[in-house]
Design a protein that fits this description.
single chain, alpha/beta
């Protein structure tokens, strides 16, 4: 940021590859292997959704790293096999593999996203979840991680504090039909000497699909104003923020990010993001290979 006292803001979307973005966000003739480079010239972070289905191979990670500027960051979503299918039962090897991938990203790793479904509740699996979190804190204190929950009995200040005590982030989500957990995150931060970055996901009405992802179809000006004020306040206080917008939030996530960034920029000075355009991936860089 322009001031050493301000927090750092990382903005982006959930994934960067959507067919409807071609000719709208991406120039019409942009090849698939150039989309990430073009995306990174506009935004400084991205939430990687593909890792929810399969962890990327080292070759894929190298290709990503070679396509973005050094300051760009990736937030990798944990595999659904851990959280949704096996539901933390016998997932030690899977979890270790996920942590290794996030760790391999080094300084370009934004907090990894570990998301649990609404059916994963404290009443049914609280002890299992607590043990999993404790193991994460023990095995990977060097890996930035955040946890998102959707069960009412886990969207609490107590659980947010439980995570923070283990240096794991509590994800705050703006999603239609879910409570606002930002006050819970704030309350959990009270008395914390060095708060973690806030990990925000603006999802919107994902259970009411829009016909495409090409344009702003349901503007959320009031929500954008609310989050701009919150983000600006956090940055003023020196808190780093990672914020990712999904297409259902307004209909076209890249434009939503621009709309939100503009609002934040009216409240707090933000640095320009004009990175040098990265050339297409070529021969493997020995320095990057050291990451793996």
């Amino acid at each position: 940021m322009n001031s050493e006292n301000l927090g750092t803001l990382c903005f982006g979307t959930s994934s960067w590859s959507f067919p409807d973005w071609r000719g709208v966000f991406y120039p019409p003739q942009t090849p698939a292997d150039r989309q990430l480079s073009y995306y990174a010239a506009n935004f400084n972070s991205v939430e990687v959704n593909t890792s929810f289905y399969a962890l990327p191979k080292p070759k894929t990670l190298l290709s990503w790293l070679e396509s973005v500027p050094p300051e760009f960051t990736f937030s990798l979503k944990a595999p659904r096999e851990i959280t949704h299918e096996k539901r933390l039962v016998e997932v030690e090897q899977l979890t270790a593999a996920y942590l290794d991938v996030v760790r391999s990203l080094g300084p370009v790793a934004a907090p990894g996203l570990i998301q649990f479904p609404a059916t994963f509740t404290r009443s049914r699996a609280g002890r299992l979840l607590a043990n999993f979190i404790d193991n994460l804190a023990t095995l990977a204190p060097d890996v930035p991680l955040s946890v998102e929950v959707r069960a009412a009995d886990l969207m609490t200040t107590a659980f947010a504090r439980f995570l923070m005590e283990r240096r794991i982030g509590f994800v705050v989500v703006e999603r239609t039909g879910q409570p606002d957990t930002y006050p819970n995150w704030q309350a959990a931060c009270a008395g914390v000497d060095s708060p973690l970055p806030l990990h925000i996901r603006l999802i919107g009405h994902d259970r009411d699909p829009l016909p495409d992802d090409k344009t702003i179809r349901r503007p959320q000006d009031e929500l954008l104003d609310k989050w701009a004020r919150r983000i600006a306040g956090l940055l003023h206080n020196g808190t780093d923020v990672f914020c990712y917008v999904h297409n259902p939030f307004e209909g076209h996530a890249p434009e939503s990010v621009r709309r939100l960034r503009s609002r934040v920029g009216q409240l707090v000075p933000l640095p320009d993001w004009n990175p040098e355009i990265v050339p297409p991936p070529g021969e493997e860089d020995g320095g990057q290979l050291a990451l793996f």
